[in-house]
Amino acid sequence: MADPLSWLDPPCVMGILNVTPDSLWGGDGPLPATDAVARLRAMAADGAAICDVGAESTRPGADPVPPEEQLARLAGVLTAVRDDPPPIALSIDTSSAAVAAAALDAGAALVNDVTAGRGDPAMLPLVAERGAAICLVHMRGDPRTMQSDPRYGDVVGEVRDHLARRLDAAVDAGIPEEHVILDPGLGFGKRLEHNLALLAGVPALAALGRPVLIGVSRKSMFAALLGREVGERMPASVAAGLAAVARGAAVLRVHDVRETHDALAVWRAVEEAG
Q: Which residue of the set 130, 160, 219, 233 is catalytic?
């Protein structure tokens, strides 16, 4: 595989395509190949550098989805990417090595694993063998339990240390360090105050030497902070993303691709003018 992070030109946008019936926002269920091609091409036109496709919801309270069900949901997207490659890189959002392998076979460049390689012992060796990239996410507990009563003494320090250990594990498994992205996992076992501290603490995470991905799009923290329902959270999501980028985040994982892309373009223009 060529450089699996060749799409990464910070700050950039990772669009979300959920082929699930129960995701927080924008879950479509399985897509026919023709519809998948159209969605991926539209996302590229809106400014996304990469599309993160997920067949298993990781919203709080979600139940795990067996690999065979994930593969059934992904069939149209993977067929589309394999037979009619769109002008956008592909990421697979899964903690199953079997699902990741099928996506990599179809041309995916990145595995986005909310368990950071802990959920399936075959994941890190697979990514190493295929020469792919991986995003290591911090999550306390699992989606069913992660929001029950999350507590931290120093959330930025604890998340940073966890990601440093998972980075070491990935390198020990044979994944080149330059193929790793780190995600502090906003909303994955965190309260509002933890999420805000992690957004402010992006420089400490970036000090680990790897690109930092922030996924805060339309999350429930904006209900706690602003009282907004999920359909009203786009402006807040864009604002939080810009705050993270200003502190050194490299990738924003978002539902609202065009709005985020345009906000980043303006931010970049102002920075360059200064």
A: 219
- Stated pTM of the model: 0.94
253 is catalytic: yes
Instruction: List CB contacts of 170: < 8 A, sequence separation 6 or more.
Output: 117, 124, 127, 128, 134, 136, 177, 180
CATH of the domain at 217: 3.20.20.20
Distance CA 49, CA 253 (A): 10
- Is 4 inside any structural domain? no
For residue 185, which of 165, 168, 205, 171 has the smallest C-alpha distance? 205
Structural domains of the chain, count: 1
pLDDT at 62: 72
Catalytic residue of the set 191, 253, 258, 268: 253
Helices (H), the chain: 33-45, 67-83, 97-106, 123-130, 155-172, 192-200, 202-206, 221-226, 234-246, 257-273
Residue 256 lies in a domain: yes
Residue 6 lies in a domain: no
Count, in order, helices (H) and strands (E) of the chain: 10, 8
Residue 3 counted as domain residue: no
Q: Residue 77 belongs to what domain range?
A: 12-273
Q: Is the dihedral of CA 127, 9, 216, 168 positive or negative?
A: positive
pLDDT at 27 over 60: no
Residues 197-256: pLDDT tens digits?
Answer: 999 999 999 999 999 999 999 999 999 999 999 999 999 999 999 999 999 999 999 999
Closest CA to 248 of 220, 208, 221: 208
